[in-house]
Amino acid sequence: MEDRLKHLKKKMDKKTFANVNFSEDHQKEIHRRINQQEERDEDILLSVMQLLAQEKTGHELTGLLRGRGIQKFENNEGFLYTMLHRLEQTGCIETKWDESGAKYYWLKNKGRKLLSKAEQKSAKHVLVLNELLGR
Amino acid sequence: MKNNKKQIFLTEVMNQIRSKEAKNYVANELNFHVKEAKKVWMEKGLPECEAEDKAVEQMGSPTKLGIQMNKLHRPKVDWVLVLLLAAAMGLSFLPMFSLGYMKDLYYVIYKILIVLVGVAATVGVMLVDYRKWKKQGWLFYSIGMFLLFFLAFFSNTMINGLKLIKLGPVTIESLMALPFFYLAWASFFNNGKLRVWQFLLLFLSPILLLLAVPTISTIYLYSVMVFVMLWWSKFSKKVKWMISAGTLGTTMLTALLVLPFIKSYQIVRLLALLNPEKYAETEGYLILRIQELMSKAGWFGVTGTREFIPEAHTNFVFVSFTYHYGWIFSVLLVMILLLFAVRMMVIQPKIKDSFGQLLLIGGVALYGIQLISNIGMTLGLFPMTTMSLPFISYGLMPTLLNAILIGAVLSVYRRKDLVWSS
Question: Which of A58, A78, A86 faces B60 most closely, judged by CB atoms?
């Protein structure tokens, strides 16, 4: 066993890691993630739902979330759509495509009820939100 | 080369998603997002290429995104309907046992084949994207008409005065045209461009052919289905009333014209339904006989003595089922069959696509009316006619009809979260 793994590190350095270089961009990104404030997924979800009281596209939403200081979707904007699609599937939000190819999202009654309950912050409703977050 | 980075990003997301329809659904939205983000960067003064690259970078890892999207948009199977279908298909073997058909190899093999073909039809139709049917209304209508035309004028077999086409072991009945008209009318109503005279022409032509077959029960199923779908369609209230009144008027007029030609035994048949005792020796006999058998059944069914039951494995399968297995089993059977309709009605509000909704409504109508009429027939509430109990009656055509219906509903359910435009 020992023998077989003997040259593993050397081989990996030569072949697998030959094309990998740790650029400055990578370093920056890691620092940014480290320094990123602890954001609770529940709060982000609440923000998204609050912002969807009026109909918006996903792109408009990213701008507004940035305005609220939420960094979770910084350089990660695609993941907003997984959250939106999950909300859509649970029947919390309604959607509509227009002719230009934009998809609009807005809060339905079910989502509105859930939001007002969650805003009152009782432990039970955090559980409901957890379900919406797909956990 | 301009779109390179974006294309690589989108392709990578799509590579992670297994469902072909979900791929495009997700990619379209992400593509739109990148375009918008690119505009913002260009307004900030970046050249076009750089703006797009920047916009793509902001999206994050395409692989991770694709994996999550794949999880969210996994094709959905409505297991409730699948389970009900399995239960109904299983229960459909019970009358075969009690009637002794299980000893006859021919019947057994044929029955197994019917079930297999039914299941294959359901799965096959489910896997097809129903949105492709949206614009094929005329195709389906033509196939339906062609089938009826062939039945009416080129039939090669007659059973009880009914024209059929026998192709080897398969007997084609007028019922086979119904799934095609079902799809055709869903498409016509979804377009909403139909004029009243066009509706009447399209609605009445199949009926004329069905009268030549002749089969009242298929006409009845067809008419109920079309009208239930009409009332759910995009037409205005006024048009719906006009069409309904127009059709009713035409029917009444025809009835008045036909009245002198109706043979007296046909009127007696209807009178017998209201008062079977008065016609106990003739037309009322069957009604009374079935009532007698049903009341003899009791909670647990009759064992030992075997009485003759007419059409025990087809039209009156519910009678033989109750007679041999008792009321408890029979109530259970009705519950399972009713659950199909209930489940479809539960799914219906969740469907956002108007065409999908029409398919569900038509499905509930066509399925429900068979169920209600067949049970009503055995309880003496409905005139005796050729009407099968969905999935339970023996026969390829009725099983296939309902299998296709359930397949269409499952196809709509499968794609309910992938709606492009409202």
Answer: A78
Q: Where are the domains of chain B?
A: 4-72, 79-414
Residue A4 vs residues A16, A18, B113, B333: alpha-carbon distances, Å: 18, 21, 58, 66
What is the interface pTM, i.e. ipTM, of the complex?
Answer: 0.70
Predicted confidence band of residue B147 (pLDDT cuts 50, 70, 90): very high
Q: Which parts of chain A sit beneath pLDDT 50?
A: none
Which domain CATH number covers A58?
A: 1.10.10.10
pLDDT in tens, B376-413: 888 877 777 778 889 988 888 999 999 999 999 999 99
A102 has a chain B CB within 8 A of its CB: yes
A17 touches chain B (CB under 8 A): no
Structure tokens at A18: 């030959």
Residues 6+ apart with CB under 8 A from B324: B95, B98, B99, B297, B301, B302
Confidence of residue B3 (pLDDT cuts 50, 70, 90): low
> Does B62 contact A78 at a Cβ distance shorter than 8 Å?
yes
Nearest CA distance, A89 vs chain B (angstrom): 7
**pLDDT of B186 strictly over 80:** yes
> Which among A77, A96, A101 has CB closest to B60?
A77
Neighbour tally for B232: CB within 10 Å = 20
Cα–Cα distances (Å) from B297 to B245, B291, B382, B395, B415, in that order, read 44, 10, 21, 25, 45
- Mean pLDDT along residues B35-41: 88
Name the residue range of residue A64's domain.
38-132
Domain count, chain A: 1
Q: In which band, very low, low, confident or very high, does the pLDDT at B421 lie, cut at 50, 70 and 90?
A: low
User: Phi/psi at B249 (nearest 5 deg)?
Assistant: -60, -45
Give φ, ψ of B159 to 5 degrees: -130, 125
Q: Which of A57, A62, A89 sits opposite B417 (nearest CB)?
A: A89
| pLDDT tens for each residue of B199-230 | 888 998 999 898 888 888 899 899 999 999 99
Residues of A within 8 A of B32 (CB-CB) are 57, 59, 101-103
Identify the closest residue of chain B to A91 by CA–CA distance. B350
Cβ-based contacts under 8 A for chains A and B: 69
Interface of B with A in 331-370 (CB under 8 A): 350
Closest A-chain CA to B22: A85
Strand spans (E) along B253-382: none
Sort out which chain B residues have CB atoms less than 8 A from A59's CB and list them. 32-33, 36-37
Query: Global pTM?
Result: 0.80
| Within a domain: A9 | no
